[in-house]
Design brief:
heterodimer, A: 336 residues, mainly alpha, MetI-like fold, 2 domains, two-stranded antiparallel sheet, 2 strands, 75% helix, B: 309 residues, 73% helix, 0% strand
Chain lengths: 336, 309
Amino acid sequence: MHRYITRRLLALPFVIVVVSILVFSMTRLGGTTIGPYLEPGMTDEEIAALEERFNLDEPVPMQYLAWLGGVIRGELGWSAVAASPVVDVFRSRIPASFELGVAASLWAVTLGIGLGTFSARRRNRLSDQLTSVFAVGGASMPTFWLGIVLLIIFWSYLGWFPHGRSDFRVWASIPHPTNFYVIDSILAGSWAGLKDAVWHLVLPALTLGYGAVGIVTRMMRSSLLEEMGKDYVDAARARGLPERLVVRRHARRNAFIPTVTVIGLSIGIMFEGTVVVETIFGWPGLGSWMADSVLSGDQATTLAFVIFTSILFLCINLLVDVTYGYLDRRVVLRKT
Amino acid sequence: MWFQTVRTETAPRVLRDTPIRVKARRLWATTREVFSRGSTAFGATLIAAMLTMAIFAPLIVDENPRGAYQMPRDLTAVAVPPGTEGHPLGTTRLGGDVLYGIVWGARLSLQLSLYVVAGAVLMGLIVGCTAGIVGGKVDAFLMRTVDVFLSIPTLVFPLAIAAILGPSFVNIVVALAAIMWARYARIIRSQILQVREEDYVDAARTIGDSKFGIIRKDILPNSLTPVAVQATLDMGHAVLLGATLAFIGLAVAGQAEWGTLVSEGQADIIAGRWWTSAFPGLMVFLWALSFNLVGDGLRDVLDPRTEGR
C-alpha cells in the first residue's frame, strides 16, 4: 500500500510536467503571446523591452524552461487581465472559489447520497423513477443555463436572492483576515455578515452542485442495489435486523466505496464549472478571472489555471485511490 | 463473422439461416430490448424530433440569405416577447428571431456533435489499434499519453485550445475532439486485447487470414459495442461542452448557436426578457438529456457488466 502511494506520488511530477509542456506549447501555437501586454503608442524599443522581460524573444523551448524556472521560484508570470503577478491573483481569488466549491460539494454529496439511498430502496417505484429523471437531468444540465434560469426566477422576478458575492456595505463592515467570507464573518461575530455570505452563496452553489448531485445519486443507487443483492445482506436480514439497519449499517457502508470515486471526480468537475458559474453570478473567484483571461489572450493566466486544474484533478484521483484502499480491505494495490 | 454466428446460435438454425438474417434478427431483438424502457424510448423520441428539426430546418424557418447560420435581424421587431406575430418565440435585443436560432442551431449542433465524435473515434481508433496491435513499448508510450489526456480537465483544456485557436466553429470542434479521443483509444485497445484471445480469432488465424483482415473483419466489429455506447453519450457531451465554450465567448458572435444565444440573452435578464436565453438553453439541455438517456439505455442492454443497475 505504502509503496503504491509512493510510486504514484513519484509519477505525479512527471505527469504534471508532460501536461505543462503540452499546454505551454499550445499557448505558443498562435504565435507570440505579447498581445495583452501591449498598449497603444508603444515604441519598438518598448516592445522589445517587454519581449525581453517576458522572455518572448527566445525560442519556445527556452521560453518553457524560463517559465519552469519561474514556477520553481514561485512565479507564474504576469497576468495582463488583472495587471498583477499571477501568483498574487491566485492567492487573492482562491478563497472565493474555494468557498463556492465547498458549499456546492456539501449539498451535492449530502443530497446525492440521500437520494441514491432513497431511490435504491424504492427501486422501480414512481419515486425511484422521478429521482432518476432528476439525476439524469443533472448530468445533462448546461450549468450556464441553470444559473441563468435561477437568476431569472429568484433574482430578476422574485428578488429573493442577490447577485454577486456580497453586499458591499456588509462586506466592508467586517475585517477579512482569511478572505473566506463565511469564516471572516464568524470570526468577527457578525450575524449580518454570515447571513449575507450564505444568502449570496445559495444560487451559485445550487447551480454548481447540481451536476454532481446527479452523478453521486446515480452511483449511490446502483452500488447500493448491487450490495443489496449480496449474501451478507440476506444474512443480516435473516438475523432479524430491521431493514433500516440492514441498509444503514451493512449495505450502505460498502456502497460508499464506488461512490467515493465519483465524489472525487465530481469535485474536479465542479472546480472547472466555476469558470461558467462565476461568470454568470459575478463571483470574484478564479473561474471568472480565467474566463476573462481566455477571452483577452492572457496566456500566463490560462496556462497557470489549466495546470492548476490538472494538478487538482491528479491529486484528487490519487486521494480517491488511497481512500479506496482504506475503505475497502479487499483492494490489494499491486506491489510492482 | 461466420464463426461468431456459430458461437452464439444453435447449430440447426445456423444451417437454415444466412448470417445476414441472423444478424438482422439479433439487431431487431436488441433494439426492442433497448427501447422497451420508457426513459430510453423518451430519449429516442426526443432525438428523432430534434433531428427532424435539424434536417428540415429550411422548411420550418426560411433560410437567412446572409448565411444560414447567421441570426437574421428583424429591425421592425426588436426584443418582442414570445407569441408575437411572425416571431412565436420572441426576438433578441438585435431583432434576431429566437425560433430561427433554435431551428438552425439544431443543425449546427448536429454538425458539431457528428464532427467531434467522428474525429474523436477516428483518432481513438488509430491510437487504440496501434497500441493494441503493435504492443510493447509503443503500447506503453501511447497508453501513458492517453492517461495524461484522461487526467486533463474536460472543460478547461478545450477552453484553452479554443481560446488559442481563436473563436470559430471549426476550432471548437478541434478543441473538443482533442480531448475526447483518449477514451476511445482506451476502449478500443482493451477490446483488441480481449477479443484477440477469443477462439474465433484463433480460427481466423488458422485458416490464414491476414493480420489486417482479422482486425477489420473480426476485431473491429466486436469492439463496436462499447464505442457505440460512448459515442452516443459523447454526442450529448459534445453539444453541452460546445455550447459552454460558445457561452463563454469562443464562438462567432451573432450565430444561430444555442450557447451563443444564451450568452447574448444574459444581458436581457435584468430587463425581464427571459425568452432570449431560456429557450436556446432548454434546447441544449434536451439535446444532452436525450443522448444521455439513450446512451444509458444502450449501455444497460449491451454491456453485461452493468446488468440490473
